[in-house]
Amino acid sequence: MSRGRPRRWRSIRVTSFYIPDEFEPVFEKLREMAASEGVPLNQKILDAIYQYVSLYSSGGDLPNPPEPMRFVKESEKVEAEMVAADLQEVVKEVKDPRLNESYRIGLVREVLPKLLKRLATLNSKLQNPNFTKLCRDALSLYKEVSFKCGK
Asked: For helices 112-126 and 129-149, what crossing angle results, to 10°?
């Protein structure tokens, strides 16, 4: 005899799930909304699951599978802005013919790749088209200068 759930229960039960720290404010807001509406929290979660499935199931108008949900911390947005500003400055200096050639090559070999990698990593979550363009421009410049230098 099976020790599982009695057959009269025809629903699936989820008793716990992981909520990342950065998602906690959203979950707390959901909890507050459910309480203010007098609706159980689990019903709000079931409603969200139902809406998600109806929107993204095959045959719908939206792409299947959908883009993954991205949770971006405010600190990551700020860091991306700062890295982008630094990267723009480096690109500007590398293109400036008035500056010492060895200095510009040093920027391309040492500084530009680190900034480019960090901005690309942050932008994988942010999906900012301006950052994407900056990364492409910086990568092209890196390839161009590296080719000229024989690296």
From this structure: 150
> CA 60 → CA 9, 70, 138, distances in Å?
31, 22, 39
Burial 63-93 (b: 16+ CB within 10 A, else e): eeeeeeeeeeeeebeeebeebbebbeebbeb
* Length of the chain as a residue count: 151
CA atoms within 13 A on the CB side of 10: 1
Long-range pairs for 112-117: beta carbons < 8 A, 24 or more residues apart: 112/87, 112/138, 112/141, 112/142, 113/142, 115/83, 115/86, 115/87, 115/90, 116/87, 116/142
Q: Is 55's pLDDT higher than 70?
A: no
In angstroms, the first-to-last Cα distance of the chain is 71
* pTM of the full structure: 0.55
Question: CB count, 10 Å around CB of 5?
Answer: 11
Amino acid at 123: N
For the chain, what percentages of helix, strand and coil (3-state, to nearest 5) are there? 70, 0, 30
Confirm if 44 and 33 have CB atoms less than 8 A apart. yes
Question: What average pLDDT does this structure show over 112-117?
Answer: 95
